[in-house]
C-alpha cells in the first residue's frame, strides 16, 4: 500500500490538501461464513434480509448532482457499503478538521483520493454590546472565505478524471450547498433554480449570506474548462 500526500499552496496559505492511496487487495472483513456447517435456511434468510437492509445506507442528505457527481453530509461507517456501490475515485471534503481514521481506512481500502478544502463553518454566536443590551448575531460561513478556494474545489469537481466524486461537509447543507450552487451557475442555471435547490437541502437552516455568496460568485474564470477533462458544460 502506498500513501502519497500532496499540498498545494497559494500566497503561503494551504489551499487544498489531497491524499491519494494506491489500492491494495480489499478483504471482505465483514462477512463471516462457516462453510463447514450446513446453513439453516430460515435463520440465514432472516439474517440476510436484516443485513441487506443495514448494508446500503446512504449518508445524510445524499443526492446525485450530475453524472459522476454526488453530494452528502459526513459519511460514517454505516454508509461505507453504500458508498462502495458508487465506485468513487475521489472525495471533496469541505471542512478544516482532520478526516477520521475510520474514513481514511475506507479510502485506503478502496483507492479513493481525498481533496480537502478547509472552509470554516459559522461561529455559533458573536456578542455585540449596544448600550445596555446584548445582541447575539449568528456568524454565517463564506463571509471571509476567498473565492479562489471555491474555484479550486470546482476545478476538482469538474475534472472527469476525479469522477465519480462525492462532495461533502458535515451535514451537506451550507458549504456543500454553496459549492453545488456555484457549479449550477457554471451550468448557466438561473438564480431562482440555484436557490431552490440550495433551500431544498438547507430547509429551515437556509442562510441569506450563502445565497448572496452564490449570487456574487464569478464563474467566468472557469469557462476555460471546456475541454476533454470537463464533460460538464457551462
Automatic annotation (TrEMBL):
Signal peptide: none
Pfam families: Y_phosphatase2
Protein name: diphosphoinositol-polyphosphate diphosphatase
PANTHER family associated with the record: TYROSINE-PROTEIN PHOSPHATASE, TYROSINE-PROTEIN PHOSPHATASE DOMAIN-CONTAINING PROTEIN
Gene Ontology molecular function terms on file: inositol-1,5-bisdiphosphate-2,3,4,6-tetrakisphosphate 5-diphosphatase activity; inositol-5-diphosphate-1,2,3,4,6-pentakisphosphate diphosphatase activity; phosphatase activity
Record flagged with keyword Hydrolase: yes
Family affiliation: Belongs to the protein-tyrosine phosphatase family. Atypical dual-specificity phosphatase Siw14-like subfamily.
GO CC terms in record: cytoplasm
Organism taxonomic ancestry: Eukaryota, Viridiplantae, Streptophyta, Embryophyta, Tracheophyta
EC number(s) stated in the UniProt entry for this protein: 3.6.1.52
Residue ranges of domain Tyrosine-protein phosphatase in the record: 61-229
Catalysed reactions, semicolon-separated: 5-diphospho-1D-myo-inositol 1,2,3,4,6-pentakisphosphate + H2O = 1D-myo-inositol hexakisphosphate + phosphate + H(+); 6-diphospho-1D-myo-inositol pentakisphosphate + H2O = 1D-myo-inositol hexakisphosphate + phosphate + H(+); 3,5-bis(diphospho)-1D-myo-inositol 1,2,4,6-tetrakisphosphate + H2O = 3-diphospho-1D-myo-inositol 1,2,4,5,6-pentakisphosphate + phosphate + 2 H(+); 1,5-bis(diphospho)-1D-myo-inositol 2,3,4,6-tetrakisphosphate + H2O = 1-diphospho-1D-myo-inositol 2,3,4,5,6-pentakisphosphate + phosphate + 2 H(+)
Amino acid at each position: 500500500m502506498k500513501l502519497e500526500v500532496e499540498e498545494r499552496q497559494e500566497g503561503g496559505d494551504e489551499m487544498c490538501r489531497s491524499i491519494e492511496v494506491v489500492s491494495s487487495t480489499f478483504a471482505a472483513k465483514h462477512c463471516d461464513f462457516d462453510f463447514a456447517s450446513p446453513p439453516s435456511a430460515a435463520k440465514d434468510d432472516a439474517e440476510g434480509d436484516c443485513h441487506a437492509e443495514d448494508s446500503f445506507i446512504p449518508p445524510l442528505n445524499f443526492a446525485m448532482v450530475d453524472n459522476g457527481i454526488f453530494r452528502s453530509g459526513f459519511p460514517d461507517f454505516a454508509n461505507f457499503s453504500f458508498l462502495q456501490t458508487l465506485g468513487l475515485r475521489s472525495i471533496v471534503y469541505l471542512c478544516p478538521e482532520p478526516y477520521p481514521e475510520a474514513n481514511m481506512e475506507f479510502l485506503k481500502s478502496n483507492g479513493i483520493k481525498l481533496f480537502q478544502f478547509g472552509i470554516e463553518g459559522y461561529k455559533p454566536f458573536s456578542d455585540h454590546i449596544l448600550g445596555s443590551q446584548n445582541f447575539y448575531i449568528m456568524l454565517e460561513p463564506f463571509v471571509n472565505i476567498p473565492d479562489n478556494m471555491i474555484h479550486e474545489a470546482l476545478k476538482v469537481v469538474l475534472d472527469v478524471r476525479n469522477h465519480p466524486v462525492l462532495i461533502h461537509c458535515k451535514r451537506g447543507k451550507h458549504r456543500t450547498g454553496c459549492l453545488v450552487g456555484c457549479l449550477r451557475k457554471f451550468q448557466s442555471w438561473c438564480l431562482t433554480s440555484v436557490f431552490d435547490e440550495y433551500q431544498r437541502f438547507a430547509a429551515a437552516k437556509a442562510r441569506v449570506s450563502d445565497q448572496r455568496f452564490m449570487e456574487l460568485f464569478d464563474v467566468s474564470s472557469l469557462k476555460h474548462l471546456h475541454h476533454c477533462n470537463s464533460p460538464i458544460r457551462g
